[in-house]
């Protein structure tokens, strides 16, 4: 999933979510397609083209397209950046659930997101990758867990050069 949604403007939401199957010359399974669109909250918008959607709706359509694919390795670049805080947490939970057991490489500039979702987190520096200590517990970690909040604060301080 690219940072930009890369939705095809001539396809509606359902068509964009089913794009992988279309490109393989297959049809997306209708029940799974509808369920995935519903899980990202876009059922009412399934027939709309990208130009009629908000930025957050477009990003959720792109996320749904990614979640429709059954791949062992998934690349996510800022997958939740256009979402408000409540919807962001909801989509993070959904992605963690659907992608469980897969290798996911996610790029984010949000320390809270990294701490909450990462099994392993690294900061890219001029010298290379530097590991980040994470609180115990499997992702997604609770957004209000004091250990998660402390780790988020520590990571932000590190990014700002304070530690």
Short description:
This protein has 163 residues and is α+β, with helices and mostly antiparallel strands.
- As a percent range, the share of strand residues is 5-15%
Sheet with the most strands, sense and barrel status: 2 strands, parallel
Query: Structural class, judged by helices and strands?
Result: alpha+beta
Strand order of the largest sheet: 1-2
Helicity level: 40-55%
* Strand count: 4
* Average pLDDT, all residues: 95
Uncertain residue ranges: none
- Global geometry: elongated
Provide the succession of SSEs: HHHHEHEHEEH
Estimated radius of gyration: 17 Å
Q: Between the first and last Cα atoms, what is the distance in angstroms?
A: 32 Å
Number of helices, counting only DSSP H or I runs of 4 residues or more: 7
SSE arrangement:
Blueprint: H1 13-17, H2 19-23, H3 30-39, H4 55-68, E1 73-77, H5 85-98, E2 103-107, H6 111-117, E3 121-125, E4 128-132, H7 146-159
Parallel strand pairs: 1-2
Antiparallel strand pairs: 3-4
Helix pairs in contact: 3-4, 6-7
What does the model show?
The protein is an alpha+beta fold. It has helices at residues 13-17, 19-23, 30-39, 55-68, 85-98, 111-117, 146-159; strands at 73-77, 103-107, 121-125, 128-132. A two-stranded parallel sheet has the order 1-2. Strands 3-4 form a two-stranded antiparallel ribbon. Helix 3 (30-39) crosses helix 4 (55-68) and helix 6 crosses helix 7 (146-159). The longest helix is centred in the middle third of the chain and has 14 residues, at 55-68. The chain is elongated. The model has no long low-confidence stretch (mean pLDDT 95).
């Amino acid at each position: 999933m690219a940072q930009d949604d890369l939705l095809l403007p001539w396809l509606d939401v359902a068509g964009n979510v089913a794009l992988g199957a279309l490109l393989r010359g297959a049809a997306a399974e209708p029940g799974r397609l509808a369920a995935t669109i519903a899980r990202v909250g876009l059922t009412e918008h399934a027939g709309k083209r990208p130009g009629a959607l908000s930025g957050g709706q477009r990003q959720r359509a792109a996320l749904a397209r990614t979640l429709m694919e059954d791949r062992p390795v998934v690349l996510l670049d800022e997958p939740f950046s256009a979402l408000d805080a409540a919807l962001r947490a909801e989509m993070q939970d959904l992605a963690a659930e659907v992608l469980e057991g897969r290798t996911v490489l996610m790029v984010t500039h949000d320390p809270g997101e990294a701490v909450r979702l990462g099994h392993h987190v690294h900061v890219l520096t001029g010298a290379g990758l530097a590991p980040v200590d994470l609180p115990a517990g499997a992702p997604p970690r609770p957004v209000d867990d004091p250990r998660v909040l402390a780790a988020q604060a520590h990571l932000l301080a590190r990014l700002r050069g304070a530690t």
